[in-house]
Automatic annotation (TrEMBL):
Gene Ontology annotations of biological process type: chemotaxis; phosphorelay signal transduction system
Modified residues (4-aspartylphosphate): D236
Protein name, entry field: Chemotaxis protein CheV
The keyword Phosphoprotein is assigned to this record: yes
Annotated PANTHER family: CHEMOTAXIS PROTEIN CHEV (PTHR47233:SF3)
Keyword Metal-binding belongs to the record: no
Domain CheW-like: 15-156
Keyword list, A-Z: Phosphoprotein
Domain Response regulatory stretches: 177-303
Organism: Lederbergia citri
A Pfam family that the UniProt record links to this protein: CheW
InterPro entries: Chemotax_regulator_CheV, CheW-like_dom_sf, CheW-lke_dom, CheY-like_superfamily, Sig_transdc_resp-reg_receiver
Amino acid sequence: MEDHSGILLESGTNELEIIEFEINNNNFGINVLKVKEIINPLPITSIPHAHPNILGIMQLRGEVMPVVSLEKALGLAQNGSYDPAKEKFIVAEFNLMKVVFHVHNVTKIHRISWNKIEKPTELYDVDSSQIIGVINNLDSMILLLDFEKIIVDINPEAGIHVGKIKKLGERERSSKRIIAAEDSPLLRKLLNETLSMAGYENIEFFENGRDALSYIESLVNEGKNIYDEVQLVITDIEMPQMDGHHLTKRIKENHRISKLPVIIFSSLITEDLRHKGEQVGAADQVSKPEINELVIKIDQHIL
Protein backbone atom coordinates (compact mmCIF):
# COMPACT_ATOMS: atom_id res chain seq x y z
CA MET A 1 0.00 0.00 0.00
CA GLU A 2 2.32 2.74 -1.20
CA ASP A 3 0.93 5.18 -3.76
CA HIS A 4 -2.74 6.21 -3.67
CA SER A 5 -2.80 8.80 -6.42
CA GLY A 6 -4.66 6.45 -8.75
CA ILE A 7 -7.75 5.96 -6.58
CA LEU A 8 -8.97 9.53 -6.29
CA LEU A 9 -12.73 9.83 -6.47
CA GLU A 10 -14.59 11.82 -9.08
CA SER A 11 -14.93 15.40 -7.91
CA GLY A 12 -18.12 16.52 -6.17
CA THR A 13 -19.60 13.11 -5.28
CA ASN A 14 -19.68 13.96 -1.54
CA GLU A 15 -17.68 10.79 -0.92
CA LEU A 16 -14.22 10.28 0.44
CA GLU A 17 -11.82 7.42 0.83
CA ILE A 18 -10.12 7.03 4.16
CA ILE A 19 -7.15 4.94 5.17
CA GLU A 20 -7.81 3.20 8.47
CA PHE A 21 -4.87 2.79 10.83
CA GLU A 22 -4.30 1.69 14.40
CA ILE A 23 -2.57 3.14 17.43
CA ASN A 24 -2.59 0.93 20.51
CA ASN A 25 -5.65 -0.96 19.21
CA ASN A 26 -7.59 2.27 18.61
CA ASN A 27 -8.90 2.89 15.09
CA PHE A 28 -8.36 6.19 13.30
CA GLY A 29 -8.69 7.47 9.75
CA ILE A 30 -6.98 9.87 7.37
CA ASN A 31 -8.37 11.18 4.10
CA VAL A 32 -6.65 9.49 1.15
CA LEU A 33 -6.25 12.94 -0.42
CA LYS A 34 -3.78 13.83 2.33
CA VAL A 35 -1.65 10.72 1.81
CA LYS A 36 1.29 10.65 -0.59
CA GLU A 37 2.40 7.12 0.30
CA ILE A 38 2.66 4.56 3.08
CA ILE A 39 6.07 3.06 3.75
CA ASN A 40 7.90 0.86 6.20
CA PRO A 41 9.77 2.82 8.90
CA LEU A 42 13.07 4.39 7.85
CA PRO A 43 15.98 5.52 10.06
CA ILE A 44 15.19 8.66 12.07
CA THR A 45 17.65 11.35 13.11
CA SER A 46 16.86 12.82 16.51
CA ILE A 47 16.66 16.60 16.92
CA PRO A 48 17.95 18.21 20.15
CA HIS A 49 15.23 19.97 22.17
CA ALA A 50 12.54 19.00 19.68
CA HIS A 51 8.85 19.07 20.56
CA PRO A 52 7.98 15.89 22.52
CA ASN A 53 5.62 14.73 19.74
CA ILE A 54 8.43 14.86 17.16
CA LEU A 55 10.44 11.66 16.88
CA GLY A 56 13.01 13.36 14.64
CA ILE A 57 13.57 13.84 10.92
CA MET A 58 13.99 11.39 8.06
CA GLN A 59 15.07 11.59 4.45
CA LEU A 60 12.94 10.21 1.63
CA ARG A 61 14.16 10.53 -1.95
CA GLY A 62 16.17 13.63 -1.13
CA GLU A 63 13.47 15.35 0.95
CA VAL A 64 13.88 15.86 4.69
CA MET A 65 10.62 15.58 6.64
CA PRO A 66 9.64 15.63 10.32
CA VAL A 67 8.33 12.41 11.84
CA VAL A 68 5.40 12.83 14.25
CA SER A 69 4.39 10.21 16.80
CA LEU A 70 0.60 10.08 16.71
CA GLU A 71 0.69 7.97 19.86
CA LYS A 72 2.25 10.91 21.71
CA ALA A 73 0.22 13.58 19.90
CA LEU A 74 -3.03 11.88 20.89
CA GLY A 75 -1.92 11.15 24.44
CA LEU A 76 -2.49 7.41 24.09
CA ALA A 77 -0.60 5.46 26.71
CA GLN A 78 1.79 2.87 25.32
CA ASN A 79 0.52 -0.58 26.20
CA GLY A 80 2.95 -2.68 24.19
CA SER A 81 0.15 -4.74 22.66
CA TYR A 82 0.89 -3.91 19.01
CA ASP A 83 3.21 -5.83 16.72
CA PRO A 84 6.32 -3.71 15.95
CA ALA A 85 6.69 -5.57 12.65
CA LYS A 86 3.46 -3.89 11.44
CA GLU A 87 4.51 -0.31 12.15
CA LYS A 88 4.17 2.12 9.24
CA PHE A 89 5.04 5.65 8.24
CA ILE A 90 2.21 7.63 6.60
CA VAL A 91 3.76 10.30 4.37
CA ALA A 92 1.21 13.12 4.18
CA GLU A 93 0.94 16.44 2.37
CA PHE A 94 -1.37 19.28 3.40
CA ASN A 95 -1.15 22.97 4.32
CA LEU A 96 1.68 23.32 1.76
CA MET A 97 3.95 20.97 3.71
CA LYS A 98 4.93 17.33 3.96
CA VAL A 99 5.04 15.45 7.24
CA VAL A 100 5.40 11.80 8.27
CA PHE A 101 3.11 10.18 10.85
CA HIS A 102 4.23 7.09 12.74
CA VAL A 103 1.39 4.58 13.32
CA HIS A 104 1.26 1.03 14.64
CA ASN A 105 -0.57 -0.56 11.73
CA VAL A 106 -2.40 0.33 8.51
CA THR A 107 -5.38 -1.93 7.91
CA LYS A 108 -7.74 -1.04 5.06
CA ILE A 109 -9.25 1.64 2.81
CA HIS A 110 -12.92 2.61 3.09
CA ARG A 111 -15.11 4.59 0.71
CA ILE A 112 -17.85 6.45 2.52
CA SER A 113 -20.22 9.37 2.05
CA TRP A 114 -19.63 12.50 4.12
CA ASN A 115 -23.27 12.36 5.24
CA LYS A 116 -22.43 9.15 7.10
CA ILE A 117 -19.79 10.92 9.16
CA GLU A 118 -21.08 12.34 12.41
CA LYS A 119 -19.86 15.56 13.96
CA PRO A 120 -18.25 14.99 17.38
CA THR A 121 -20.68 15.58 20.23
CA GLU A 122 -20.33 18.52 22.59
CA LEU A 123 -19.09 16.10 25.25
CA TYR A 124 -15.68 15.94 23.58
CA ASP A 125 -15.92 18.58 20.86
CA VAL A 126 -13.86 21.33 22.50
CA ASP A 127 -11.12 23.58 21.19
CA SER A 128 -8.55 21.00 22.24
CA SER A 129 -10.32 18.19 20.38
CA GLN A 130 -8.32 16.49 17.63
CA ILE A 131 -11.34 14.71 16.15
CA ILE A 132 -13.24 16.08 13.14
CA GLY A 133 -15.67 13.20 12.61
CA VAL A 134 -16.88 9.82 13.80
CA ILE A 135 -17.68 6.88 11.53
CA ASN A 136 -19.68 4.21 13.34
CA ASN A 137 -21.35 2.17 10.59
CA LEU A 138 -18.28 0.12 9.65
CA ASP A 139 -16.75 -2.92 11.31
CA SER A 140 -15.63 -0.71 14.18
CA MET A 141 -15.83 2.93 15.20
CA ILE A 142 -13.25 5.05 13.37
CA LEU A 143 -12.23 8.53 14.44
CA LEU A 144 -11.18 11.00 11.74
CA LEU A 145 -8.34 13.09 13.09
CA ASP A 146 -7.68 16.81 12.70
CA PHE A 147 -4.13 16.51 11.38
CA GLU A 148 -3.87 20.26 10.83
CA LYS A 149 -4.48 20.89 14.54
CA ILE A 150 -1.97 18.19 15.48
CA ILE A 151 0.67 20.10 13.49
CA VAL A 152 -0.36 23.52 14.81
CA ASP A 153 -0.10 22.19 18.38
CA ILE A 154 3.52 21.34 17.58
CA ASN A 155 4.26 24.49 15.57
CA PRO A 156 1.80 27.39 16.10
CA GLU A 157 3.44 29.25 13.21
CA ALA A 158 1.81 26.72 10.85
CA GLY A 159 -1.63 28.15 11.66
CA ILE A 160 -3.62 31.20 10.59
CA HIS A 161 -2.29 34.52 11.87
CA VAL A 162 -4.30 37.70 12.15
CA GLY A 163 -1.14 39.79 11.82
CA LYS A 164 -0.70 38.86 8.16
CA ILE A 165 -3.81 40.84 7.26
CA LYS A 166 -2.34 44.13 8.48
CA LYS A 167 0.04 44.16 5.52
CA LEU A 168 -2.91 44.44 3.12
CA GLY A 169 -3.85 47.88 4.38
CA GLU A 170 -7.20 49.41 5.36
CA ARG A 171 -10.33 48.68 3.36
CA GLU A 172 -14.09 49.09 3.68
CA ARG A 173 -15.99 45.92 2.84
CA SER A 174 -18.64 45.78 5.57
CA SER A 175 -21.53 45.94 3.10
CA LYS A 176 -20.43 42.70 1.42
CA ARG A 177 -22.04 39.53 2.75
CA ILE A 178 -20.12 36.25 2.74
CA ILE A 179 -21.28 32.70 3.49
CA ALA A 180 -18.55 30.52 5.02
CA ALA A 181 -18.71 26.73 5.51
CA GLU A 182 -16.11 25.50 8.01
CA ASP A 183 -16.54 22.66 10.51
CA SER A 184 -13.77 23.63 12.94
CA PRO A 185 -14.94 25.99 15.74
CA LEU A 186 -11.38 27.23 16.15
CA LEU A 187 -10.99 28.04 12.44
CA ARG A 188 -14.41 29.71 12.32
CA LYS A 189 -13.24 31.99 15.12
CA LEU A 190 -9.92 32.71 13.38
CA LEU A 191 -11.61 33.34 10.03
CA ASN A 192 -14.07 35.71 11.64
CA GLU A 193 -11.24 37.65 13.31
CA THR A 194 -9.03 37.84 10.23
CA LEU A 195 -11.76 38.65 7.70
CA SER A 196 -13.22 41.28 10.04
CA MET A 197 -9.80 42.88 10.27
CA ALA A 198 -9.74 42.88 6.45
CA GLY A 199 -13.05 44.78 6.41
CA TYR A 200 -15.37 41.82 5.76
CA GLU A 201 -17.55 42.01 8.85
CA ASN A 202 -20.77 40.54 7.47
CA ILE A 203 -20.04 36.81 7.48
CA GLU A 204 -22.53 33.99 8.10
CA PHE A 205 -20.82 30.80 9.29
CA PHE A 206 -22.08 27.24 8.88
CA GLU A 207 -20.63 24.00 10.22
CA ASN A 208 -20.88 22.10 6.93
CA GLY A 209 -21.76 22.41 3.28
CA ARG A 210 -25.26 20.99 3.71
CA ASP A 211 -26.34 23.73 6.13
CA ALA A 212 -24.72 26.45 4.00
CA LEU A 213 -26.49 25.22 0.86
CA SER A 214 -29.86 24.95 2.65
CA TYR A 215 -29.54 28.53 3.83
CA ILE A 216 -28.65 29.84 0.37
CA GLU A 217 -31.53 27.92 -1.22
CA SER A 218 -33.93 29.17 1.47
CA LEU A 219 -33.18 32.76 0.49
CA VAL A 220 -34.06 31.97 -3.11
CA ASN A 221 -37.22 30.13 -2.09
CA GLU A 222 -38.30 33.20 -0.14
CA GLY A 223 -38.19 35.14 -3.41
CA LYS A 224 -35.09 37.16 -2.56
CA ASN A 225 -32.46 38.11 -5.11
CA ILE A 226 -29.59 35.88 -4.02
CA TYR A 227 -26.97 38.18 -5.50
CA ASP A 228 -28.24 41.06 -3.35
CA GLU A 229 -28.21 38.84 -0.26
CA VAL A 230 -24.88 37.04 -0.73
CA GLN A 231 -21.81 38.13 -2.67
CA LEU A 232 -19.45 35.18 -2.16
CA VAL A 233 -19.09 31.71 -0.62
CA ILE A 234 -16.01 30.38 1.16
CA THR A 235 -15.81 26.66 1.88
CA ASP A 236 -13.50 24.11 3.42
CA ILE A 237 -13.32 20.71 1.72
CA GLU A 238 -13.37 18.21 4.59
CA MET A 239 -16.68 18.57 6.45
CA PRO A 240 -19.19 16.06 7.82
CA GLN A 241 -22.55 15.83 6.02
CA MET A 242 -21.45 17.65 2.85
CA ASP A 243 -17.92 18.45 1.70
CA GLY A 244 -16.79 21.60 -0.04
CA HIS A 245 -16.42 20.06 -3.48
CA HIS A 246 -20.01 18.81 -3.43
CA LEU A 247 -21.26 22.14 -2.09
CA THR A 248 -19.53 23.95 -4.94
CA LYS A 249 -20.93 21.53 -7.51
CA ARG A 250 -24.49 21.92 -6.16
CA ILE A 251 -24.23 25.71 -6.32
CA LYS A 252 -22.93 25.67 -9.89
CA GLU A 253 -25.59 23.19 -11.05
CA ASN A 254 -28.44 25.35 -9.72
CA HIS A 255 -29.18 28.07 -12.31
CA ARG A 256 -30.74 30.29 -9.63
CA ILE A 257 -27.47 30.58 -7.68
CA SER A 258 -24.85 29.43 -10.18
CA LYS A 259 -23.23 32.87 -10.53
CA LEU A 260 -22.23 32.97 -6.86
CA PRO A 261 -18.41 32.87 -6.74
CA VAL A 262 -17.09 30.06 -4.53
CA ILE A 263 -13.58 30.09 -3.07
CA ILE A 264 -12.29 26.83 -1.63
CA PHE A 265 -10.07 27.44 1.43
CA SER A 266 -8.60 24.12 2.46
CA SER A 267 -5.47 22.29 3.56
CA LEU A 268 -6.04 19.99 0.57
CA ILE A 269 -5.14 22.57 -2.09
CA THR A 270 -2.03 21.15 -3.76
CA GLU A 271 -0.89 21.14 -7.37
CA ASP A 272 -1.90 17.47 -7.60
CA LEU A 273 -5.42 18.14 -6.27
CA ARG A 274 -6.23 21.59 -7.63
CA HIS A 275 -7.98 20.05 -10.64
CA LYS A 276 -10.73 18.68 -8.37
CA GLY A 277 -11.85 22.18 -7.42
CA GLU A 278 -11.64 23.31 -11.02
CA GLN A 279 -13.88 20.44 -12.12
CA VAL A 280 -16.70 21.51 -9.78
CA GLY A 281 -16.47 25.17 -10.80
CA ALA A 282 -14.65 26.89 -7.93
CA ALA A 283 -13.78 30.51 -8.75
CA ASP A 284 -10.51 30.12 -6.86
CA GLN A 285 -8.68 27.87 -4.42
CA VAL A 286 -6.42 28.88 -1.55
CA SER A 287 -4.41 26.60 0.72
CA LYS A 288 -4.65 27.00 4.46
CA PRO A 289 -3.20 28.83 6.26
CA GLU A 290 -2.60 31.53 3.58
CA ILE A 291 -5.24 33.89 4.95
CA ASN A 292 -3.75 36.96 3.25
CA GLU A 293 -4.02 35.21 -0.12
CA LEU A 294 -7.64 34.37 0.68
CA VAL A 295 -8.44 38.04 1.30
CA ILE A 296 -6.77 39.02 -1.99
CA LYS A 297 -8.89 36.45 -3.86
CA ILE A 298 -12.07 37.67 -2.12
CA ASP A 299 -11.24 41.21 -3.24
CA GLN A 300 -10.89 39.99 -6.81
CA HIS A 301 -14.12 37.98 -7.01
CA ILE A 302 -16.59 39.81 -4.82
CA LEU A 303 -18.96 42.23 -6.59
